[in-house]
């Protein structure tokens, strides 16, 4: 063993130990590993930052931006919610939700898909009087296995494609993973639709959205005078919100106020005083096309790169709003903000927003241009609340990012454009068409994951270049010579699934990928079944909440404990092992 090989093993060993200890962030551990590897000469200084230019980084960042735009539009959760409204069985609801998140994860980054469907699942659990723990873990597991369908669905598929390139072969195509991922996802969805009963019943933490009273906000919606406006009764409107918003009053014939019965019909030109949470009202606006009354065009500020934003603030005792009305303060003229909604400190009111007299403790939604809005909040003496990523008043259409994504997939599928170019262009056009603003686009990118991957890629290459990978592969090859080829692939798949819970899934791919390829070469087999086994195993971490961020994402809302995951995850892991291995060998023969 050479000096550089010894140093490479020490770097990897120390990195794995820090990953498992959890004392330092994943991105910091990866950065330290890169610094030490460069200092020791394991990674040449000229290649130290080559990971940042790797196409994998571009693809992951771009897909996350597009995923955020689709999530912000509410279009997918509106469709899924409409389907669930007709279903009463918890098993069927979980099956539908898991199928939605699984198959969508083939084309939208699985963490983005989970973020889209999670709120719908929580609402479905509440309506069915079921603990949310029964819904969220199947959702997370479905998103993981669904990401294995295409190259862009999950980071392990992207990274194993990069490993294949480093080995001197072309990267995998977008749909090369379908013969394994699609049938496996379908089988997993069927299992999860019934297997949720293995999960302990737990009540999770409330999200920021749920921490606010649903019926406290008063918002005004105007019914547009267009043929596209749906013909609704008061009851029909409230059914669209799934009972979570109500029409307290209708303003028509100038300024006459009526308290409506549920069979009253809503007419074009009406102004509806709606009681409900802004996130619920936002979804109703997406379904109906109604307009936020008061969302008038504000004068463009000097900073023309500013974005229109909505902020949630609380009126403090010394705020200049106290005792004033929006009309008396001339909020739009003097401060450049629109008043969207008010939640009174005492109780909800059907009074017009423009005549509402503010009091300490009121919670208010204000719309304005970025820098102007920040200064206006400070001048008004109000206190911003936690950012709930409110999109009320936005005119984005979820069909635009979905259409852009479809075009990108088509171009890649026809091999007219490289994957990274297609998805980067898709993300840029998503921002250009104002489906999300620049602030949201940058916030959508998981920068700790990006930094970690960019640091680990050259470390992984250094492991291979020093010959350390070959040493590990030779040892594994000696053990694998005593078992059939299909068992060797199964062992690689099992090793990947067992290593991933201890590491981040990306680190596991980068460490195991070159080793698996070397084992295949030593045994005289094609490398593809072994690389596919690594990708599949690293993508399917169902045993702990730490191997993949999707498992971590549902831990709080689902109220799960660390030991809850294996109850559903262990049988699913066994199923992936015994179903995934023959699927891999059927699609990618050993010889």
Automatic annotation (TrEMBL):
<dbReference type="InterPro" id="IPR051679">
    <property type="entry name" value="DASS-Related_Transporters"/>
</dbReference>
<dbReference type="InterPro" id="IPR006037">
    <property type="entry name" value="RCK_C"/>
</dbReference>
<dbReference type="Pfam" id="PF02080">
    <property type="entry name" value="TrkA_C"/>
</dbReference>
<feature type="domain" description="RCK C-terminal">
    <location>
        <begin position="298"/>
        <end position="383"/>
    </location>
</feature>
<dbReference type="Pfam" id="PF03600">
    <property type="entry name" value="CitMHS"/>
</dbReference>
<keyword id="KW-0812">Transmembrane</keyword>
<feature type="transmembrane region" description="Helical">
    <location>
        <begin position="134"/>
        <end position="154"/>
    </location>
</feature>
<feature type="transmembrane region" description="Helical">
    <location>
        <begin position="398"/>
        <end position="417"/>
    </location>
</feature>
<keyword id="KW-1133">Transmembrane helix</keyword>
<keyword id="KW-0472">Membrane</keyword>
<dbReference type="GO" id="GO:0006813">
    <property type="term" value="P:potassium ion transport"/>
</dbReference>
<feature type="domain" description="RCK C-terminal">
    <location>
        <begin position="205"/>
        <end position="290"/>
    </location>
</feature>
<feature type="transmembrane region" description="Helical">
    <location>
        <begin position="96"/>
        <end position="122"/>
    </location>
</feature>
<dbReference type="InterPro" id="IPR036721">
    <property type="entry name" value="RCK_C_sf"/>
</dbReference>
<feature type="transmembrane region" description="Helical">
    <location>
        <begin position="56"/>
        <end position="76"/>
    </location>
</feature>
<dbReference type="GO" id="GO:0008324">
    <property type="term" value="F:monoatomic cation transmembrane transporter activity"/>
</dbReference>
<feature type="transmembrane region" description="Helical">
    <location>
        <begin position="30"/>
        <end position="49"/>
    </location>
</feature>
<feature type="transmembrane region" description="Helical">
    <location>
        <begin position="441"/>
        <end position="459"/>
    </location>
</feature>
<dbReference type="GO" id="GO:0005886">
    <property type="term" value="C:plasma membrane"/>
</dbReference>
<keyword id="KW-0813">Transport</keyword>
<dbReference type="InterPro" id="IPR004680">
    <property type="entry name" value="Cit_transptr-like_dom"/>
</dbReference>
<feature type="transmembrane region" description="Helical">
    <location>
        <begin position="502"/>
        <end position="523"/>
    </location>
</feature>
<protein>
    <submittedName>
        <fullName>SLC13 family permease</fullName>
    </submittedName>
</protein>
<feature type="transmembrane region" description="Helical">
    <location>
        <begin position="471"/>
        <end position="496"/>
    </location>
</feature>
<feature type="transmembrane region" description="Helical">
    <location>
        <begin position="174"/>
        <end position="196"/>
    </location>
</feature>
<feature type="transmembrane region" description="Helical">
    <location>
        <begin position="568"/>
        <end position="588"/>
    </location>
</feature>
<keyword id="KW-0677">Repeat</keyword>
